[in-house]
Amino acid sequence: MRILITGAGGFVGSYAARQLLADGHELALLLRPRSNPWRIRDVLLRTQVIAGDMQRLSNVRREIKAFRPETVVHCAWQGVGNGARNDAAQDTNIVAALELVNIAARAGARNWIGIGSQAEYGPCSKRITEDFPTRPMTRYGQAKLATCREADKLCEELGVRFAWLRLFSTYGPGDDPTWLIPYLAGILLRGERPVVTAGEQFWDYIYISDVATAIARVVEREEARGVFNLGSGATATIRSIIEQVGALIDPRLPIGFGEAPYRPDQVMHLEADISRLAALGWRPQVELHEGLAMAVAWYRQQASQTLAA
């Protein structure tokens, strides 16, 4: 299958690209000209690279048409970091995604898979099914939800299969260093004392390779349509996750639990019901303790390479 992936240089997109390549698909990757594709540098020669920006898709319309994608996997998003979650620029993602649907459909695509977010749900206190009320608390969550709804409508009008994966918390090698697990690992590897909340939140963390296999399963199954929760289907307290990371790095290092306040919009329970994905024959394979061990080993290796440089 010929698959166009946006955001392939990012955390989720890079793992999706590797998995789809391993499954024998032909890939074109939309990459920003000035981005650093360090996560996928070794696989670029096995793909077609389209140098372009989601905000200027008209500039690469011809290249997309020439590739003739059968499927689009849309991972790109502007403003993923916590500091940009309420920026007005979040709305530009909606327009860009809809333009991508139009361009891809005209180029022959019949499948469009987008990566959504748990942020579309907003506050909750129990396991979340896909029909759970959506009450996003941030402009990021609002923009993701609007993209889901409008892209779904547009795909239906154009005769394109639409699937939307609402992603819960991810982790693993190559993650953005500002997110909890890599940030915590970086502090502890420097022998410093992290200041954190009490860690009473129950969150659903899924290892990144399991995310990639779920995306591949949805790509390959024609019956996979609509919204799917993409998580591990289990929760752990943030405190227990932090304690596991600390034990893997140095159990003697102190951790400042309760010294950081919760955010005003703090969600205390995030747990995905993954029944819809499981019905496609997919299940996460990496247990939390295994994934944390692999992630910490990678962070330790990166830290050692930095010191040696």
CATH-defined architecture of the largest domain: 3-Layer(aba) Sandwich
Q: How are the strands ordered across the major sheet?
A: 3-2-1-4-5-6-10
Average pLDDT rating: 95
CATH superfamily of the largest domain: NAD(P)-binding Rossmann-like Domain
SSE pattern: EHEEHEHEHEEHEEHEEHHH
| First-to-last CA distance | 41 Å
Approximate shape: globular
The total strand number stands at 11
Structural class based on helices, strands and sheet pairing: alpha/beta
Tally of DSSP helical segments: 9
Strand content: 15-25%
Q: What is the CATH topology assignment of the largest domain?
A: Rossmann fold
* Main sheet specs: 7 strands, parallel
Number of domains: 2
Gyration radius over CA: 19 Å
Query: What percent of residues adopt helix (DSSP H or I)?
Result: 25-40%
Q: Uncertain runs with pLDDT below 50, 5 residues or more?
A: none
Kindly describe this structure:
This protein folds into two domains: 2-170 and 207-230, Rossmann fold (3-Layer(aba) Sandwich), CATH 3.40.50.720; 171-204 and 234-270 and 286-308, UDP-galactose 4-epimerase, domain 1, CATH 3.90.25.10. A seven-stranded parallel sheet has the order 3-2-1-4-5-6-10, sandwiched between helices. Strands 7-9 form a two-stranded parallel ribbon. The protein has helices spanning 11-22, 61-67, 92-106, 139-158, 180-189, 208-220, 238-249, 275-278, 288-308; strands spanning 2-6, 26-31, 48-51, 71-74, 111-117, 161-167, 169-171, 202-203, 205-207, 226-230, 236-237. The longest helix has 21 residues, at 288-308. The chain starts with a strand and ends with a helix. 42% of the residues are buried. The chain is α/β, with parallel strands linked by helices and 309 residues long. The chain is built from nine helices and eleven strands. The radius of gyration is 19 Å and the shape is globular. Helix 1 (11-22) packs across helix 6 and helix 7 crosses helix 9 (288-308). The mean pLDDT is 95.
